[in-house]
Design goal:
- This protein is of the alpha+beta class.
- It has three domains: 82 residues, Phosphorylase Kinase, domain 1; 170 residues, Transferase(Phosphotransferase), domain 1; 243 residues, paralog of FGE (formylglycine-generating enzyme), CATH 3.90.1580.10.
- 23% of the residues lie in helices and 21% in strands.
- The chain is built from 13 helices and 20 strands.
- The chain has a six-stranded antiparallel beta sheet with strand order 9-10-11-14-20-15.
- The radius of gyration is 26 Å and the shape is globular.
Length: 566
């Protein structure tokens, strides 16, 4: 019972383009929607079931679980769109991931280094933690079911073990050899209890495979007193901590393993433990054109924290996904005129306004502080040297200054290697979306900005606001009110680097919030947010500024983003 190439599924908008595979429990197809978007459709393989009744039962289970999984929205979990039916066969329509799975990557190399593998395992682990919090197990974690997107370079979990009551020895041997070394002992046993520890074993086995390019001995062999070879014997470059963490994650008896993915990740990343997502409370201020407060409402946001050592914490705020209109209308006060854009070549046009869709991500609660910079700059270099104390205005809780774009990229690379999370500079679209926090006004505060709301050159005014005493230097982060997402200092204090190449305007800009790194002026990079040194119009959420990637200035810092889950 298969679908044919070129077949259009009745009552749906999908055309079957290619059969991707189908030797086990399921058959997958590449299909296209009417608008040309590629999707993957998964069906059950009728040939794998003993009788029609059992097949129908499993189809019902497939549909029910697919509809439930469709509610799981996470950037590291393949998105499920809907279920469709053609004849007697039900199919689950899901996101097409542009990239290669890890098993495919391993075919072309000896093995992954720890620096390469650990960020992937961290992403997958946190995705699993999210899935478990929603009441699901994956049940088939292995390199072949983890795809690395081409852009952005993120690991994505695919092919959940839907409608799979158990995996028996016959199944593993005959039809699913790729799973053989990754399934824990309880998946060989029909009535054994399963839990988060089941996926922990498979995740640890996946790390074993990435670091050695060897498939671990199957659990049923180990049950017959065949010892598991420590991964360090295959690859002496593996550190003692990671070697021990893998062995603990692959303990044969479920009760001897870490009982949650969070617990397993703590073994690998002791300086950055995974915790339940806490929230923090704050107040969001809105002002009118005169700068008078017209609203102050309580708000709260989720955040996670990475321990950088010596009591230095990096707090990352959860930014919900959504859509927004990027850029400013021609009527916005302070918007660069055509004459100014010709005169100031380092200013960017804020047109044309365009709709952008932004997946969820995490962003630094504050600009990177000098204490945080020192902690990361003290780590071994990845590519570049970093000055541990570059700022002109000193203060551990002040934003770091005199940072080049290249410095920022190196900072993110070291942070990624240390924590296992994929830290990077924000795209320009992510930055503006996060700054606006659902508003459409020039500032997230409203129609204007005041010296009581931000640190900028306040001997000038915006709209009908008032002047103040210009501070003429940076201030500690977090002393001014945040926006509705819980982000501080998005207007003023220091400019913040974005990942994008500078483009003079938005014609041809991506609509998916990815960094715009093709075309444009490769000798310049984007800066956003204004600083203590500039007038208020340049601190607007839509204002675009650029600078050479190797250059720095006293009023240039950075803020980082990351994609991970609870």
């Amino acid at each position: 019972m298969y679908w044919q190439l070129g077949q259009t599924l009745p009552n749906s908008k999908y055309v079957i383009q290619k059969r991707l595979g189908g030797s086990g429990f399921s058959v997958t197809y590449l299909a296209s929607s009417k608008d040309g978007r590629p999707v993957v459709i998964k069906t059950l393989n009728a040939l794998h079931y003993d009788n029609e009744s059992k097949f129908e039962q499993q189809q019902v289970k497939l549909v029910n679980e697919a509809l439930s999984l469709a509610k799981c929205k996470h950037p590291q979990v393949v998105e499920i769109y809907e279920v469709v039916r053609e004849g007697e066969l039900w199919g689950m329509v899901m996101e097409y991931i542009d990239g290669k799975d890890l098993a495919n990557h391993l075919e072309n190399r000896r093995f992954f280094s720890e620096a390469e593998a650990l960020p992937i395992i961290r992403q997958v682990g946190e995705a699993l933690s999210y899935v478990h919090s929603q009441g699901f197990l994956h049940r088939d974690v292995k390199p072949a079911n983890i795809v690395l997107r081409r852009d952005p370079r993120q690991a994505v979990l695919i092919d959940f073990g839907l409608a799979r009551e158990y995996i028996d020895n016959r199944t593993l041997t005959q039809t699913n050899r790729v799973t053989y070394g990754f399934a824990p002992i309880e998946q060989y046993q029909r009535k054994a209890q399963r839990g988060a520890f089941t996926d922990v074993y498979a995740l640890a086995a996946t790390l074993y495979n990435l670091l050695t390019n060897q498939v671990p001995f199957p659990a049923n062999f180990r049950e017959q007193n065949v010892a598991l070879i420590p991964p360090q014997q295959h690859n002496p470059q593996i550190s003692d901590r990671i070697n021990q963490g893998i062995l603990m994650g692959m303990e044969l008896s479920p009760e001897n393993r870490p009982q949650s993915v969070e617990e397993f990740l703590r073994l690998l990343f002791p300086q950055a433990p995974v915790i339940q997502v806490p929230t923090f409370a704050f107040e969001v201020v809105t002002v009118n054109r005169q700068g008078k407060m017209i609203n102050c409402r309580p708000q709260q946001a989720e955040y996670l924290a990475d321990n950088l050592g010596n009591g230095i914490i990096l707090e990352m705020v959860s930014i919900p996904g959504g859509s927004f209109v990027m850029g400013s209308p021609e009527t916005e006060e302070g918007r660069p005129t055509k004459e100014e854009l010709k005169k100031y070549e380092w200013w960017g046009d804020e047109s044309p306004q365009h709709q952008v869709t932004v997946p969820p991500f995490y962003m630094g609660k504050y600009p990177i502080t000098q204490d945080q910079w020192l902690a990361v700059a003290s780590l071994p270099p990845v590519k570049e040297k970093l000055n541990p104390n570059p700022s002109y205005f000193k203060g551990g809780n002040r934003p770091v200054g005199r940072i080049s774009w290249l410095d920022g990229v190196e900072f993110c690379a070291r942070l990624t290697r240390e924590t296992g999370r994929d830290y990077r500079l924000p795209s320009e679209a992510e930055w503006e979306y996060a700054c606006r926090a659902g508003t459409t006004t020039p500032f997230h505060f409203g129609e204007t900005i005041t010296p009581d709301l931000a640190n900028y050159c306040c001997d000038d005014t915006y709209a009908a606001s008032y002047k103040g005493v210009w501070r003429e230097q940076t201030t500690d982060v977090g002393i001014f009110p945040p926006n509705a997402f819980g982000l501080y200092d998005m207007h003023g204090n220091v400019w913040e680097w974005c990942a994008d190449i500078f483009h003079k305007n938005y014609r041809g800009a991506p609509s998916d919030s990815s960094a715009w790194v093709s075309g444009g002026n490769d000798s310049l990079r984007l800066l956003r947010g204004g600083s203590w040194l500039v007038h208020p119009r340049l601190c607007r959420g839509a204002f675009r500024y650029c600078f050479g990637p190797g250059l720095s200035d006293v009023n240039i810092g950075l803020r980082v983003v990351c994609v991970f889950a609870r």
